[in-house]
Amino acid sequence: MNNETYPVIGMHCASCKALIEGELNKKEGVKSAKVNYATETVSIEYDPLKTSMAEITNEVRSLGDYDLLVQKDSKKVDLEAVDREKMLELAKIKKNLIWVAIGAAPFAVFMILMILNRFNWVAGFSTDFGSIKLFSRIRAELFLLTQFVLSTLVLFLGGRSFFRSSFAAIRNLKANMDTLIVTGTLTAWIFSTIVTFYPSLLGAHGGELEVFYEATVFIIFFVLLGRWLESRARLKTRMAVKSLVHLQSKEATVIRNNEEKTIPISEVQKGDLVIVKPGEKFPVDGHVDSGSSAVDESMITGEPIPVEKKVGDHVIGGTINKNGSIKFIVEKIGSETMLSQIIKLVENAQNSEAPVQRLADEISAYFVPIILSIGFLTFIFWSVLSPQLGLLDGTQEPVSFAIYAATSVLIIACPCALGLATPTAVIVGTGVAAKHGILIKDAQTLENAHKIKVVLFDKTGTLTLGKPQVTEIALREGTSHDRFLSFAKSVEKLSEHPLSKAIVKYASEGQEFAVEGFAAIEGKGVAGIVDSKKVIIGNQRLMEDNGVIIDSWARGRQVMFLKQAYTAVFVSVDGAIEGLIGISDQLKDDSIAAVKRLSAMGIRTIMLTGDNEKVAKIIAEKVGIKEIKSNVLPTEKASVIKQLQDETPESDLIAMVGDGINDAPALASSDIGIAMGTGTDIAIESGGIVIVKGSLTKVADSILTSKATMKVIRENLVWAFGYNVVAIPIAAGILFPWLGILLSPIIASAAMALSSVSVVGNSLRLRRLHLS
């Protein structure tokens, strides 16, 4: 199965989404197709043995004025090419809008003169909707003919895209937003044409009926204006991904055969030596080989203070070298780089669908047929039933009034606002988060994060720096210091555990022995045979499991270490404890502030650690956490989370914050996993949210982003639903019998155009969200 995402050109309403999605899902060989209206993309999972992208593209084209932007030589979408296509589409709408505006100008002038004449501000001007007289010297027939010609040109040339889309949908036995526009404007135009040329078909007074040429023209104008404004606004919602893409370098200066050579970024290879001068971007990821400098990583991590880089430190592609010249060895290229991973993750999040969107999509799928039915019923009511009910006075002709009201219903209805309500907010919300170094994996995570009520922190590497160091050694009397360290180094060197590395580093100058029968006991320690002696190094549980007696001397040193919040590591040789190693891990500078912010938000914080209870309590008190889960093995973390989930109300979610590598099972078992990125890896698979380096306070920022986004989504949905619920009955004339209010099709078209623009505009407010 192939799973690919491509931009869709030509979508302009939520019904377009439903049409394309519905038809593709029925095509043989396509397992699933998901269209995102806000990002204008389609994600397709298909069997290449049964169908091809060429066939799928042709299927999309057959549905209307749509196209898929697929590169012939690559599955990777060229974002610059997408931008070009979108800008061309926008320019086409603008050009068409200008011509329609020129055609609408005479109607605007006439309407202004009518208003002025109503207040007797224009002499010699008389209007009568019964006979349509314009200046006594101009014949009414010539005026009607002029209106007919202008409205015909505007409708069939300016509005040709509506007809193409509508007829394509009808061919597939579907209806979309353009179906409503075409039905409304064509009905008004046909009626007006009959009044102008064949009035007798409408009875004895057919020639006295009102025409709706101006409504036809202004509906096309306002709908085009709305689409132009909406398209411009939607381009702004994608600024986050664009800004990330623009961080990518196009060239790199490599040193080959002792010569500097500038080459395209695509030709850079792993192991290349690259030179980056002050003010230049690092083209790819790697580690510093020589030189030092301050590097601006704010565009990746959201942290404004430049980071000092020296030999051995990691550098990230897209970041900026501030002062010194640096040479670095390339480690990651292409899609492997951190920036490429971030772009991919943000794109995936923006193309995903939030659960709250599903109701809006279901309504949009049935929206157009329902509105067509309401429009038909409105026409029947006012043309047939209203005269019998005495709702119209003698000056109002039922058929003319019915067409007026039915056209307003068809035009004012707008599924677009419903379709844009959630995805535009998701796009802007995930973009803002990414700008601050917070990567949210999908829309569902963004939607749910505001429900987090409990946050569990792993201690090592999350609350602490994750760089433990030996602080103190306690030796039993008579034990050789050098031999003790040599035995410890020899066994610990075979382990990858952070505590083992700390011991090896401390004992780096000690002698190294061969080790036989090495074993690493998860969450407890290590063991091996050194110089024919059994050496066991680890915590109290490991000693007890192996029958090693912890006597009063060893217990006393353990208590002393615990009071100082050191991790006490026992070292036994042939069943007797020869000494203890005290290891400490410094708290991160922002740990206290992070916990304080969460507590202020009413969120319960818990520390999860493999340390014993006494050490855990001391560290928890320092950081401000009141609850601890100590002596927890890595394999037990998931079960601790499960127990908490059982004790917590279903509506309250539990988040786990860890390093994304050692804590992967715990992150996966929590409701929302928050992985702290390290180095140039962002552990995408580990959690629903990834914090790219940066501050631990971004855990709170993640929740605030979710809250702000959900607030905007609710506002958008209330507006979108409320607009249609209120506007459609008013357009149908529900207020006319009591208040004499009947909505003009012109006002209806303006309202419809602005409804979707207002939703996009409201979503763009998230760009002003202030995060730490």
| Quaternary structure of the protein | single chain
Strand content: 15-25%
| Spatial strand order of the main sheet | 14-26-25-24-15-22-23
Helix proportion range: 40-55%
Q: Mind describing the biggest β-sheet?
A: 7 strands, mixed
Number of strands: 26
- Mean pLDDT comes to 85
Shape: elongated
Name the structural class.
alpha+beta
Radius of gyration: 35 Å
Tally of helical segments: 27
The end-to-end distance, rounded to whole angstroms, is 42 Å
Low-confidence stretches: 121-137
Would you write up a description of this structure?
The chain has 772 residues and is of the alpha+beta class. The strands form six sheets. A seven-stranded mixed β-sheet has the order 14-26-25-24-15-22-23, sandwiched between helices. It has a six-stranded antiparallel β-sheet with strand order 16-21-20-19-18-17. Strand 5 (251-256) and strand 6 form a beta hairpin. Helix 3 runs antiparallel to helix 7, helix 10 runs antiparallel to helix 14 and helix 17 (481-492) runs antiparallel to helix 18.
